[in-house]
């Protein structure tokens, strides 16, 4: 891993993206233990990964990080739709299926939240989780998000429609948490 550490959490490092991370990210979003929870509807091919990388690294409304645990890549955490004038963003995180359960997801999410609230002066963050994804829901609740709504039958995964739960947290609620 050649990308520099941008933020340190309790158990993870958030590193900037570089081309060396593409292979890991490409493998991750094609991992059945990951893509089902992301709602990806087919394989992501390498040219698509490269195009995505160019968009992410050139966009001003996206902050994407490689999550590293014990010196190796374990996932990704992102703030997208960053709206600095209104002070809000949407968060997303995934951890490789063989690395789940080690506390990387909550720590990566919490570390990015701290940066967004303390350094980017954002006020409100939102995130979503599929109703069937108990681990994602627990992670969001553990780091201070609260469920604020439900989009009924919003996503089609594994042959069925599923509800998508909407979560949010304000800087004040987060600090009180």
UniProtKB/TrEMBL annotation:
Residue stretches making up the N-acetyltransferase domain: 12-172
Pfam families given in the database record: Acetyltransf_3
Domain of life: Archaea
Protein name: GNAT family protein
Species of origin: Halorubellus litoreus
